[in-house]
């Protein structure tokens, strides 16, 4: 096994080592207001939404995790099986290792056979040229392609990149790929400063990917002998902060929320704050590794039921109505939102 594939296994091992039962994504600072007399019945609730311009039955999906080594390919195949049985969309981890060797592409190529009818999403870094992106899409007939922005991870990664000129490439990919692009962070939060630039080059789909879940700065620092990047562990924007900062741009993008999301209530809060869908990674991986496929399937089905129940409590029969639902912020997050409105408005 080469160094790239070995790193895939390391990421999964360290991510699970650092897994926390309680998220630090800031969503606890959003308070929802019950309808009390909702004038709705449970069978009127519609959970459907959109992801990368495509219809999805429920507003959450299995987000990017892994793949590219024998061990992680097995995880991906189990996740694809879960996706097939629950109807969820599935995003893979980075396919860069698969572009280096056909040996490591094999696992990705098999994914479609495990989830033939599901929305499947590929994944590459923002430095990959058009040709690579086309190969990644063809690898399992991907319905969309995630392009991840991971400057902090690369800087802390011992063998990571040190040069980051991406905008021209993103523009080229967006103009020339027929498959929708989703621009995403990897757990540090999309900066509001970059959203106008993404809108300018025609990007429509953005995964805000805030802090609060899998922490790639901590993972890469763990791989360093001296662990000298501890000071960056909490660098970035939480899931709640990214959603608030993104609200002024809601007409320009369809947002995915991700970052430490575990419960139906957290999913609903993300939708109330403007997301069209929610990506879940570490939580699903933890359940799969510790309890198996059937337990993860049962958990996903329970989430669907719980989402409908919460929507009824809020008096909202669909995701569009959720985006209009009232909410309250705790004083510290309210202050943050007010400062953001002043310092990061859409004309900045």
Give the terminus-to-terminus CA distance.
47 Å
Mean pLDDT: 93
The radius of gyration computed from the alpha-carbon positions, rounded to a whole number of angstroms, is 19 Å
Number of domains: 1
Strand order of the largest sheet: 4-11-10-9-8-7-6-5
Q: Count of helical segments?
A: 16
What amount of the residues lies in strands?
A: 5-15%
Decide which structural class fits the backbone.
alpha/beta
Write down the secondary-structure element order: HEEEEHEHHHEHEHHEHEHHEHEHHHEH
Low-pLDDT stretches: none
CATH level-two architecture: Alpha-Beta Barrel
The total strand number stands at 12
The CATH superfamily turns out to be Aldolase class I
Main beta sheet strand tally, sense and closure = 8 strands, parallel
State the helical fraction: 40-55%
Output the CATH class name. Answer: Alpha Beta
Examine the coordinates and then state which fold CATH places here, giving the name of the CATH topology.
Answer: TIM Barrel
Cα shape:
globular
């Amino acid at each position: 096994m080469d160094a790239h594939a070995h790193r895939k296994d390391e990421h999964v091992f360290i991510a699970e080592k650092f897994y926390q039962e309680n998220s630090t994504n800031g969503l606890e600072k959003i308070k929802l207001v019950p309808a009390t007399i909702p004038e709705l019945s449970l069978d009127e609730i519609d959970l459907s939404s959109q992801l990368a311009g495509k219809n999805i039955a429920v507003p959450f999906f299995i987000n990017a995790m892994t793949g590219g080594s024998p061990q992680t390919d097995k995880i991906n195949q189990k996740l694809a099986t879960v996706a097939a049985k629950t109807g969820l969309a599935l995003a893979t981890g980075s396919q860069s290792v698969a572009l280096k060797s056909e040996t490591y592409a094999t696992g990705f190529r098999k994914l479609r056979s495990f989830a033939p009818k599901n929305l499947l999403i590929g994944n590459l870094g923002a430095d990959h040229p058009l040709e690579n992106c086309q190969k990644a899409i063809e690898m399992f007939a991907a319905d969309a392609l995630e392009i991840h922005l991971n400057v902090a991870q690369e800087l802390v990664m011992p063998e990571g990149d040190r040069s980051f000129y991406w905008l021209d490439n993103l523009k080229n990919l967006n103009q020339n790929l027929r498959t929708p692009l989703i621009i995403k962070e990897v757990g540090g939060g999309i900066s509001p400063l970059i959203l106008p630039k993404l809108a300018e080059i025609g990007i429509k789909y953005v995964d805000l990917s805030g802090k609060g879940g899998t922490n790639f700065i901590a993972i890469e620092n763990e791989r360093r002998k001296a662990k000298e990047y501890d000071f960056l562990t909490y660098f970035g924007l939480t899931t709640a902060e990214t959603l608030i900062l993104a609200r002024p741009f809601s007409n320009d993008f369809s947002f995915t929320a991700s970052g430490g999301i575990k419960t139906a209530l957290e999913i609903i809060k993300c939708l109330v704050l403007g997301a069209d869908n929610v990506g879940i990674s570490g939580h699903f991986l933890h359940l799969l590794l510790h309890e198996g496929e059937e337990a993860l399937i049962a958990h996903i089905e329970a989430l669907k039921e719980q989402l409908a129940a919460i929507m009824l409590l809020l008096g909202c029969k669909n995701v569009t109505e959720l985006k209009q639902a009232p909410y309250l912020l705790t004083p510290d997050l309210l202050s943050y939102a007010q400062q953001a409105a002043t310092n990061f408005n859409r004309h900045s």
